[in-house]
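Progress note, sequence design subtask.
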């Protein structure tokens, strides 16, 4: 017997919602159809829970870099993924234990962003990833322009 969740407290995606999401990505954010998309997506990975037939985790990737959304974070998965795809969601980075989370720069808010702008966004994402990794390991990382 399949358990059906009430839509008011639903945080995961149903099969139908996943299908709609994949169609949306193909139309608006796909590598194939939209190289000037706000969020360019090449790969979509998801985790399906057979207990209640819902998707509880989605990972959107360009290449090696990606953004993962999970129901454990306490938000509605569908809303957050669509916000991200439309460029409405800012990425967050924590610089030190004493500092609050800050909005990171978002270089792809322009729907007509050039490939140069997309490349800059990937570079910034890589720097943010390295900052997060350094924070976890307790290392102070400094970047030298042109190195």
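Output:
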């Amino acid at each position: 017997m399949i358990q059906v969740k009430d839509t008011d407290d639903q945080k995961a995606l149903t099969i139908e919602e996943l299908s709609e999401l994949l169609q949306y990505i193909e139309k608006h954010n796909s590598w194939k159809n939209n190289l000037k998309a706000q969020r360019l997506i090449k790969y979509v990975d998801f985790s399906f829970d057979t207990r209640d037939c819902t998707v509880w985790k989605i990972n959107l990737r360009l290449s090696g870099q990606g953004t993962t959304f999970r129901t454990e974070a306490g938000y509605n998965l569908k809303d957050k993924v669509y916000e991200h795809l439309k460029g409405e969601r800012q990425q967050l980075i924590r610089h030190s234990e004493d500092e609050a989370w800050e909005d990171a720069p978002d270089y792809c808010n322009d729907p007509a962003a050039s490939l140069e702008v997309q490349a800059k966004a990937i570079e910034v994402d890589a720097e943010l990833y390295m900052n997060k990794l350094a924070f976890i390991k307790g290392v102070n990382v400094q970047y030298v322009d042109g190195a």
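The CA atoms of residues 127 and 143 lie 9 Å apart. Work on this subtask will continue into the next period as scheduled.
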